[in-house]
C-alpha cells in the first residue's frame, strides 16, 4: 500500500482547491489498494489482539506510516467516500490497550484532523494538506511534520494543543435534550419540532425528523435504527431513522415526560404523571398501563425498564414499573429539585438542586451518599456513565462537569458553551459526553484521561461583538459582550497592546457607603469607587490575585475592605475628598492573610477598628485593624463555607450564615456560640436590628427568618421565588427589606408577617439592600445598576444608575488616532494619543454600528431606536438625523468617499442610501445576507458588505455582486460559503468554518474572525498579488 500511495499524481494537481472529480482523474485506486486503505487498521488491531508479542516490530511500521503517509491515505479515503470509516478505525487504534502511547497519540491526532476537516475534505480532498493543517493546534506532531509553506497562515488564535471538544454541531435553536445510542455510534438531539441525528465518529448529519409541536423527550434504539419521542399533548411516536417513516403511534391525553427502548429494542417504555406504559414496537400495541400511586413526574428509567424515578418539587420516588408500587422515597426539604436520574442498575439516584448542589442517594436505604459542590447556579441536567461510576452535569452557569461517584470529587470541567446547558448524556463506554445548550449547539466531548484541560476564563462567557482593523493592518481592535474593554492585539503575534477601558468594567459585587454618596464595585480583580450620581470612577485600584468576592465600607466611609478568591482581605484608604469628590491618592493600607480558602463575606464593627470575615475554609476570623498582628480570634463550628457575617452595633456579637444551612450568633470576647438556628438551605444574608435585639436571615429556600437573640422565632417571611441574597432592618425595627436572586426587592411588615411592597425593576440578582430613610430603600444588583425606591408606592424614586454596559460597536478613524465605541445607547470617542474621552448621548437604545467619514470629521451611528444620526466629531454635536429607516432596524452604516451619501444596512439585508444633504433615501437593493455588521465603500461604486457568514463586494449602481477588481487597490479578503479568498490571487481559496463566528473584518492581507466563545482568530494571506500582475477573474 505504501509504494502504491507514493506513485499517485495528486501533488501534480494545479491547486488545492481541486474538486473531487479532478482528484479522481489523478488517483487510480485498484481493488487491492482500496482493500488495503479500508482494512489495514483492522489487521493491525488483529495483531494486537492475537499476537501481542509481535507488536513491537509492527509498532515501528505503523509509526512510520503516520509520520510519512497518513495524509495521503486520508486523501484516498476521501476519494473512496470512506472518511467516516477512517475516523472510526483510527478511534479503535487510539483506544486499544496494546497499542503504545506513541501510536495512540498519532491515531488521535489523525482522527481529530479528519473530524475537523471532514466537511470540506469529502468534496475537496487536497484541502487536508492546507485548510486542514492550517487550523490544528500548533503543538500537534502532525502539524509540525506536514506543514507546507502555503499562502494562508493562522498567525494567532489557534489552541496550543488538542482539547476535549471533538465537535460542535450547530442547530441554531435551543437544544432541549441529547441522547446517545447504546453503542455510542450516534447522538440525537431535539429542538423545536425537529430531531437531529449525527454519526459520532464523523459528526456527519444522518437524519432530521420533523415532529409535531410539544416534543418533550426522545430515545434512540441501541442499534440506532429507530427513534422514539413523547409529546406534551400526550402520546408517543417511533420513526425509522433511515427512511424517516413512522413505525408506531400511540395516542394519549397526558404529557409524556420520559421514554426509553427496552427488551432489545422490541419495546418502548414511557411515563406520564399518571401512568407507566409499555408498548410493543413489533406488534404496534400497548402491552401494559400501570397507574401511578405517587405524586411526581417520571423522568428516568433504569436500563432494564424495571424501575422508574419520579421527580417532585422536594422529593424523589423510585417505583417498580411492573406494579407501580413504591420502592423508596427520598425527601429533600427546603430545596427545589431541578433534575433527577436513576442509575443503569436502578440502585442509585442523583438529584440536581437549584442552588447548584448535586446529591447522590442509595435507593434501598434512602441515605444520602455524597454532595457534589462546584456549580454556581442550578443544575438542570445530568447523566450517569454506563458503569455508574461517573456523573456528568450541566448547569445554568454554562458549564459541563464530570464527577467521581466514589469520592464525590470533580474530575474535569468542560468549557465551551456560552449559555445554560439544557441536557447532557454519557456514551455507554464512558469515553464521550454530549451536551446540548441554549446557545443552539450540541458539543461532543472526549472524556477519557490523558488530554489537557482548558481552563475557563472570561473569554468563554461572551462572544466577540465588535471588530476593527487599523489602517496599516498591524493591529486588531475588538470587544466582547459583557465588559467595557476594547482589546488591542498585534495581528502577527497576537500580543496584547491594550486594553482600553471605556467607562467601567462588568460589575461582580457592589457596596454602598453608609452616607449613600458612593458605590464601591468589584470587577474581576479591580476595585472601583464612584460617585453615586454616576460618572467616571473616582478610584481604581488593583492588588488582589484573583476575583474580588466581597466589598464593605467602614462606618466612617474612610476605608474599604475587599475579600477575594485569593484567600486574602485588603483594606484600602482611597482618600476621597468630601468637597470635590476627587480621589487624592490610591493606597492599600493593609493585607490580611490567614484564611485557607476564598473570603466570601466581610463586615466592619461600628467603630471601624475591627473586621469580621467568613470563608470557604468554614471559619470566621476577627481582625484588629489597629494592632500590628491584626488577627485576634478564629471562630470554628460551621461545616460549610461561611457565606455572610455581620457585627452587632455594640461590636459584642457576630452573626454568621453558612452553606451548612445554619445561622450562628457568636460572642466576640469568648468565641462561644450563643445561638444556633438550622433552616432549609444555605444562608446568604444576615443582619442585626439597630438595637441588637433581633436577627434576620435570608435563605436559599426563598424564605426570610426573624428571631430574637434569645433564639425565639418571631416571623417567617415567604414570597420570594428564589434565594434571598440581602436583608436589612428599618430604623424602627418594624420592617425588613430583602433582595433576591428572583430580581425583586420586597418590603415586609414584621408585626403581621405580610409582604407590604414588591419592587420590580432590576433584571438580575439583587445583592445589596438598605434603608436610606424610613420611606426610601436603596438596592444594587448584578445587572450593574443602583436604584432607590419609595416604599410607600413601590416605585423608583430616581432613575437607575448603571455601573456597567457592553461595547456593541467600534470604529477607527482613517489615521488610527480616534476610536469610536458604541456603549449601550452612548457613543464614546477616545483620542488614543492624548487619552481624552468624550461622550455623545442622544440615542435611546443600543448603538449597533458606527463609522467615520473619510476625512474623520463626522461619525454616523445607527441604533435599535430606529434612527441614524450624523455627528460632528470636533463639536461632539448631532448634525443630522434620519428618524425612520425602512421596515427593519438598521445594523450597519458607512460613508461614501465624499461624505455625502451614507449606506445603511438593515437586519433583513436591505441596503438604503441616505443623501445627507437632501435627507432623502435614494435607492436600495437586497444583499441576501442578514444581520449586516460594519460595511464600507471601497470606491464610489463598490460597497463591501459584511455579515456573520460572508464578506462580499457589491456594485451600488447595478445592485449586484461585483468582483471586477483588476484596477482596484486594497480590496479586502472576501468570504462566502465557508471559503475565504483574495480576489487578486488565482486559486487562493481556503476553507474556514463560519458556524461559530460572531463577527468578521478584513483587509487586503488578513481576515479576522471574532468567535461566539470570545476568541479571536487571525488568518493572513501571505502572497498578495502586485497590482501590475493582477488579472480579472469572475467567481
Explain what this protein looks like in three dimensions.
The chain is mainly β and about 1050 residues long. Helix content is about 10%, strand content about 45%. The strands form 21 sheets. Strands 58, 59, 60, 61 and 62 form a five-stranded antiparallel β-sheet that branches. A four-stranded antiparallel β-sheet has the order 1-84-83-82, with no helix packed on it. Strand 16 and strand 17 (about 315-320) form a beta hairpin. The two termini are about 40 Å apart.
Report the total helices: 9
Give the number of DSSP strands: 84
Range of helix content: under 10%
Which range does the strand content fall in? 35-45%
Q: What is the gyration radius calculated from CA atoms?
A: 32 Å
Bulk shape: globular
* Parts with pLDDT < 50 across at least 5 consecutive residues: 451-461, 577-587, 1025-1035
**What is the terminal separation in angstroms?**
39 Å
| Average pLDDT level | 83
Helix/strand class: mainly beta
Biggest beta sheet attributes: 5 strands, antiparallel
Q: What tags apply to this protein structure?
A:
four-stranded antiparallel beta sheet, 1035 residues, five-stranded antiparallel beta sheet, mainly beta, disordered C terminus, 10% helix, 84 strands, 9 helices
Secondary-structure map with pairings?
Elements: H1 2-7, H2 20-26, H3 31-50, H4 55-68, H5 70-79, H6 83-95, H7 101-121, H8 131-134, H9 141-146, E1 152-156, E2 165-170, E3 177-180, E4 186-191, E5 194-199, E6 205-210, E7 215-220, E8 226-231, E9 236-240, E10 246-250, E11 258-262, E12 267-271, E13 275-280, E14 285-291, E15 297-301, E16 307-311, E17 315-320, E18 326-331, E19 337-342, E20 348-353, E21 358-362, E22 368-372, E23 379-384, E24 390-395, E25 400-404, E26 410-414, E27 421-426, E28 432-437, E29 441-446, E30 464-469, E31 475-480, E32 485-490, E33 500-501, E34 509-512, E35 518-523, E36 526-531, E37 539-542, E38 548-553, E39 560-564, E40 569-572, E41 588-592, E42 599-604, E43 610-615, E44 619-624, E45 631-636, E46 642-647, E47 653-658, E48 662-667, E49 673-678, E50 683-688, E51 694-699, E52 703-708, E53 713-718, E54 724-729, E55 735-740, E56 745-749, E57 754-759, E58 766-773, E59 776-781, E60 785-790, E61 795-796, E62 801-802, E63 807-812, E64 818-823, E65 826-831, E66 837-840, E67 847-852, E68 858-863, E69 868-872, E70 877-882, E71 890-895, ...
Amino acid at each position: 500500500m505504501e509504494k502504491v500511495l507514493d506513485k499517485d499524481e495528486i501533488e501534480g494537481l494545479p491547486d488545492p482547491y481541486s474538486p473531487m472529480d479532478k482528484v479522481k482523474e489523478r488517483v487510480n485506486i485498484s481493488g487491492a489498494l482500496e482493500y488495503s486503505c479500508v482494512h489495514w487498521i483492522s489487521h493491525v488491531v488483529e495483531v494486537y489482539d492475537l499476537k501481542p508479542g509481535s507488536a513491537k516490530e509492527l509498532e515501528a511500521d505503523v509509526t512510520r506510516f503516520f509520520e510519512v503517509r497518513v495524509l495521503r491515505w486520508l486523501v484516498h479515503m476521501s476519494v473512496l467516500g470512506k472518511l467516516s470509516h477512517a475516523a472510526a478505525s483510527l478511534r479503535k487504534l487510539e483506544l486499544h490497550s496494546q497499542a503504545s502511547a506513541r501510536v495512540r497519540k498519532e491515531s488521535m491526532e489523525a482522527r481529530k484532523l479528519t473530524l475537523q476537516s471532514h466537511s470540506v475534505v469529502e468534496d475537496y480532498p487536497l484541502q487536508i494538506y492546507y485548510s486542514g493543517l492550517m487550523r490544528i493546534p500548533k503543538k500537534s506532531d502532525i502539524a509540525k511534520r506536514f506543514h507546507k509553506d502555503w499562502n494562508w497562515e493562522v498567525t494567532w488564535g489557534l489552541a496550543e494543543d488538542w482539547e476535549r471538544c471533538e465537535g460542535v454541531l450547530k442547530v441554531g435553536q435551543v437544544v432541549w435534550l441529547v441522547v446517545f445510542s447504546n453503542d455510542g455510534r450516534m447522538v440525537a438531539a431535539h429542538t423545536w419540532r425537529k430531531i437531529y441525528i449525527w454519526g459520532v465518529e464523523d459528526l456527519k448529519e444522518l437524519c432530521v425528523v420533523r415532529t409535531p409541536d410539544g416534543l418533550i423527550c426522545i430515545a434512540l434504539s441501541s442499534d440506532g435504527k429507530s427513534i422514539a419521542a413523547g409529546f406534551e399533548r400526550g402520546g408517543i411516536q417511533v420513526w425509522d431513522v433511515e427512511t424517516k417513516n413512522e413505525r408506531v403511534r400511540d395516542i394519549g391525553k397526558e404529557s409524556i415526560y420520559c421514554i426509553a427502548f427496552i427488551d432489545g429494542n422490541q419495546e418502548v417504555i414511557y411515563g406520564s404523571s399518571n401512568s407507566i406504559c409499555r408498548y410493543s414496537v413489533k406488534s404496534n400495541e400497548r402491552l401494559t398501563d400501570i397507574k401511578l400511586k405517587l405524586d411526581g413526574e417520571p423522568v428516568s428509567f433504569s436500563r432494564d425498564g424495571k424501575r422508574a424515578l419520579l421527580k417532585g418539587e422536594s422529593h424523589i420516588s423510585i417505583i417498580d414499573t411492573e406494579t407501580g408500587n413504591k420502592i423508596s422515597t427520598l425527601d429533600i426539604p427546603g430545596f427545589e429539585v431541578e433534575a433527577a436520574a436513576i442509575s443503569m442498575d436502578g440502585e442509585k439516584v442523583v438529584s440536581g438542586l437549584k442552588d447548584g448542589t448535586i446529591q447522590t442517594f442509595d435507593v434501598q436505604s434512602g441515605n444520602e451518599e455524597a454532595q457534589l459542590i462546584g456549580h454556581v447556579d442550578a443544575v438542570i441536567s445530568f447523566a450517569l456513565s454506563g458503569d455508574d461510576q461517573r456523573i456528568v452535569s450541566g448547569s445554568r452557569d454554562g458549564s459541563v462537569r464530570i464527577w467521581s461517584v466514589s469520592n464525590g470529587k470533580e474530575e474535569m470541567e468542560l468549557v465551551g458553551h456560552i449559555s445554560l446547558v439544557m441536557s447532557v448524556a454519557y456514551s455507554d463506554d464512558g469515553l464521550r459526553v454530549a451536551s446540548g445548550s441554549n446557545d443552539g449547539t450540541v458539543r461532543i466531548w472526549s472524556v477519557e484521561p490523558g488530554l489537557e484541560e482548558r481552563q475557563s476564563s472570561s473569554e468563554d462567557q461572551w462572544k466577540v461583538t465588535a471588530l476593527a482593523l487599523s489602517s496599516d493592518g498591524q493591529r486588531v481592535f475588538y470587544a466582547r459582550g459583557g465588559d467595557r474593554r476594547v482589546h488591542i492585539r498585534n495581528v502577527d503575534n497576537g500580543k496584547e497592546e491594550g486594553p482600553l477601558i471605556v467607562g467601567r468594567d462588568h460589575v461582580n459585587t457592589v457596596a454602598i457607603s453608609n452616607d449613600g454618596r458612593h458605590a464601591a464595585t468589584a470587577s474581576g480583580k479591580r476595585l472601583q469607587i464612584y460617585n453615586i450620581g454616576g460618572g467616571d470612577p473616582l478610584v481604581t485600584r488593583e492588588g488582589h490575585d484573583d476575583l474580588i468576592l466581597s466589598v464593605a465600607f467602614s462606618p466612617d466611609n474612610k476605608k474599604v475592605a475587599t475579600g477575594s478568591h485569593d484567600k486574602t482581605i485588603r483594606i484600602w484608604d482611597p482618600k476621597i475628598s468630601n468637597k470635590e469628590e476627587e480621589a487624592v491618592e490610591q493606597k492599600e493600607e493593609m493585607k490580611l492573610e490567614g484564611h485557607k480558602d476564598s473570603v466570601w463575606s466581610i463586615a466592619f464593627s461600628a467603630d471601624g477598628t475591627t473586621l469580621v470575615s467568613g470563608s470557604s475554609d468554614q471559619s470566621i476570623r476577627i481582625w484588629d485593624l489597629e494592632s500590628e498582628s491584626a488577627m485576634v480570634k478564629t471562630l470554628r463550628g460551621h461545616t460549610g463555607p461561611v457565606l455572610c457575617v455581620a457585627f452587632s452595633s455594640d461590636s459584642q456579637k457576630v452573626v454568621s450564615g453558612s452553606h451548612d444551612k445554619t445561622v450562628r450568633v457568636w460572642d466576640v470576647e469568648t468565641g462561644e456560640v450563643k445561638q444556633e438556628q438550622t433552616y432549609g438551605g444555605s444562608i446568604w444574608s444576615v443582619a442585626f436590628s439597630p438595637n441588637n435585639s433581633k436577627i434576620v436571615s435570608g435563605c436559599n429556600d426563598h424564605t426570610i427568618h426573624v428571631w430574637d437573640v434569645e433564639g425565639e422565632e418571631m416571623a417567617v417571611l415567604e414570597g420570594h421565588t428564589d434565594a434571598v441574597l440581602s436583608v436589612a432592618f428599618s430604623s424602627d425595627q418594624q420592617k425588613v427589606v430583602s433582595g433576591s436572586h428572583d430580581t425583586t426587592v420586597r418590603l415586609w411588615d414584621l408585626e403581621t408577617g405580610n409582604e407590604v411592597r414588591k419592587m420590580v425593576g432590576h433584571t438580575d440578582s439583587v445583592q445589596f439592600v438598605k434603608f436610606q430613610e424610613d420611606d426610601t430603600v436603596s438596592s444594587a444588583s448584578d445587572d450593574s445598576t443602583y436604584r432607590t425606591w419609595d416604599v410607600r408606592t413601590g416605585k423608583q424614586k430616581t432613575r437607575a444608575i448603571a455601573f456597567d454596559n457592553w461595547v456593541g460597536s467600534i470604529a477607527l478613524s482613517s489615521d488610527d488616532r480616534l476610536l469610536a465605541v458604541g456603549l449601550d445607547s452612548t457613543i464614546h470617542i477616545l483620542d488614543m494619543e492624548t487619552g481624552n474621552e468624550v461622550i455623545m448621548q442622544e440615542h435611546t437604545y443600543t448603538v449597533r454600528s458606527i463609522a467615520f467619514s473619510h476625512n474623520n470629521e463626522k461619525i454616523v451611528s445607527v441604533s435599535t431606536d430606529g434612527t441614524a444620526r450624523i455627528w460632528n466629531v470636533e463639536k461632539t454635536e448631532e448634525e443630522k438625523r434620519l428618524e425612520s429607516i425602512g421596515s427593519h432596524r438598521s445594523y450597519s452604516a458607512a460613508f461614501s468617499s465624499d461624505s455625502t451619501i451614507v449606506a445603511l444596512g438593515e437586519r433583513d439585508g436591505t441596503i438604503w442610501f441616505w443623501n445627507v444633504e437632501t435627507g432623502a433615501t435614494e435607492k436600495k437593493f437586497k444583499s441576501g445576507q442578514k444581520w449586516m455588521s460594519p460595511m464600507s465603500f471601497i470606491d464610489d461604486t463598490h460597497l463591501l458588505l459584511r455579515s456573520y457568514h460572508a464578506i462580499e463586494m457589491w456594485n451600488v449602481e447595478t445592485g449586484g455582486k461585483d468582483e471586477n477588481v483588476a484596477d482596484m487597490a486594497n480590496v479586502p479578503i472576501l468570504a462566502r460559503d465557508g471559503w475565504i479568498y483574495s480576489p487578486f490571487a488565482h486559486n487562493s481559496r481556503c476553507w474556514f468554518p463560519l458556524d461559530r463566528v460572531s463577527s468578521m473584518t478584513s483587509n487586503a492581507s488578513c481576515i479576522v474572525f471574532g468567535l461566539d466563545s470570545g476568541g479571536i482568530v487571525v488568518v493572513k494571506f501571505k502572497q498578495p498579488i502586485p497590482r501590475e500582475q493582477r488579472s480579472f477573474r469572475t467567481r
